[in-house]
Amino acid sequence: MIDLEHVLVVAALLFSIGIYVALSRRNAVGILMGIELMLNSVNLNLVAFARFVESPRPIDGQVFSVFVITIAAAEAAVALALAVAIYKLRQSIDVDRMNLLKW
Amino acid sequence: MDDTAVVVAFYVLAAITLLSALMVGMVRDLIHAVLFLILSFIGVAGLYITLSADFVAVVQVLIYAGAISVLMLFAILLTPRSGRDNAGVSYSAPISVIAGLVGATIVFVALKTEWAKVDEDRFDTTAAAIGEALLDPFVLPFEVASVVLMVAMIGAIILVRPSEGEES
Amino acid sequence: MIPLIAAWYDFDPFRELYDWLRDNTWDELVYVVIAVVGATGILSFVGLGALANVWLERRIIGRIQVRRGPNRVGPFGLFQPVADAIKLIQKEVLQPSASDAKLYNLPPILVFIPAMLTFAVFAWAPDMVYADLNVGVLYLLALSSITSLAIFMAGWASNNKYALLGAMRVIAMAISYEIPLVMALLAPVLFAGTMSIPGLIDFQKEHDIWLAFLLPLPVFIYAIAATAELNRTPADIAEAESEIVAGFHTEYSGMKFGLFYAVELINSLAVSGIMASLFFGGYSLFGIEEYIPPWIIFIGKIYFFYFGLIWLRGTWPRLRIDQLMAFAWKMLIPLALINVVIVAIEVLLWRELELTDWVLAAYVAINAVLAIGLFAFFFRIITRDYYRLPRRVRLEHDVSVPSLPAPPSLALSQPGTGVGEA
Lengths: 103, 168, 422
Prior knowledge:
The complex is a heterotrimer. Chain A has helices at about 5-25, 30-50, 60-90. By secondary structure, chain A is mostly helical. Chain A has one domain (about 5-95): Orthogonal Bundle (Helix Hairpins). In chain A, helix 1 (about 5-25) packs antiparallel against helix 2 (about 30-50). Chain B contains six helices and no strands. By secondary structure, chain B is mainly α. Chain B has helices at about 5-25, 30-50, 55-75, 90-110, 125-135, 140-160. The model of chain B has no long low-confidence stretch (mean pLDDT about 85). Helix content of chain B is about 70%, strand content about 0%. Chain C has two domains: about 1-90, no CATH class; about 100-385, no CATH class. Chain C has a two-stranded antiparallel sheet. In chain C, strand 1 (about 125) and strand 2 form a beta hairpin. Chain C is globular, with a radius of gyration of 26 Å. Chains A and B meet through helix 1, helix 2 and helix 3 of A and helix 1, helix 2, helix 3, helix 4 and helix 5 of B.
């Protein structure tokens, strides 16, 4: 039997892995990968609630997760464009070296 | 959801997703990390299907595994070879502790709350229901999302465009 | 649950086996048996199709190029695919030592998976669908976006800059042509109101009209976009044999290359199948499907469109990558967008005002006129620069450059053409 708690636990584990990846990388694309993992876990939560929890309009969870996917796509595009632009300017995408506000 | 096949599929897919997410954090080469990320996306799409969300599952494969992954691969290829070391982690011990604490808190709250659960499978075709929801209650977020996508596209193009007077 | 899924009992022995199994054993066993039998049927069609396609392609392209195709290995060269397979299997397996070892062996297998999965949603007969998904059309689109990832992996793992260049070209073209592909496939979904493929075929049977007549522009857009997604000529810049060695499969020898080639053929069959199901009625042929088994009609239509793809390959020259990208972004995407708007208006009028089915005939005429008009308009816009290019400079009418000496006069020129005056 798959119950709501099982899915929530899986999503929570995915979220914590996402936090670890996002906070501990030095590479900008690595940080983005962690953020995408976190967004995926949030989507999983939303879809699980849409499936298991009583609500006046049960499709809302899935609609919300479609919006999250859309915004994640937009954010990934801008983040990667930023990474490429920073590389052209500073010849590196090591975020530990981007520690000056103005150069 | 007490079909044995669905239960087995759920556990297998959850294992695939979590293991590949762990490997994202642990492999040395950044391109291998992106490929494990794609595997975790597909695992999450499989989990959606076990939760009767067929439209969201296919959209997840189409957009995450098909488009965002390609974006990440292109960005990695346009940036230096020396920066492709995924093993360069900083402060990994404190961050693992923080991540573990956050995960434990969420799991504790999830298991302790009394959710108002409904047990039947309510969705016949989710695509039609999502379409109607996007046009009636959620039409404003729908339009705003299209504006956000256009702004992101224009912003990304402007960020990587060669500046004036520079040969591309 | 069971009657709704794969009802493969269209054949009488299968029907008896199914009835016996359902009465005497558990439901799960029936499900597993149906799944296995159905999968075997589909995979055997795919495998035999790949073999037959090798022969078909080489013979037909040979005839188009005014030569016979292979004709030595059997009667009419029919065993040529077997000879090809044996040749590829016995080749030495060369793996570049600098290649990414873990990633090198995966792509030939990974490109196979989406190609096979595409055939699961086709409707071969009224109750012969392996997986009647509610989002069938979207599922097909998602699979084509996974194929490009496997090709990138192949190009990357080879550690060869030409292979990587070929892989980047493939991905750039794939993502550019995905947009008009999605919008072209949106039009029949709008008309039928459902994304499931049996639903679309039911719509075409119920209104007795093929969606290709209603929607000529999406058919055209889909044909071109699918050719580009398949990396077939005229859009095969990714594996252009004369240009970048062999593109993303340069470093793959023997049967691995054979797998890539076979996947290209299977994908061509899949694309022909999608075109036949969505636009040309699938297994239905205006009522003849009661006398001829519908799956024979469907396979016939698949091979008809596959013949069209081979014809395209044999006749058209290869386009350059910038020509292909310009074509996708400047012509197909605006055409597809305008087409979606027009189709949406038509469907709205048809359903809201509850007009009769005679309005479909009017739509056929309107859409045909609009398709030709829009296509001519955009074609004119894209080729506008061509008419403004300066005339090609010829040797006799040289532009005078002060720093260079006068061009030599040619002995072959006729008097009065102005040679020697510059």
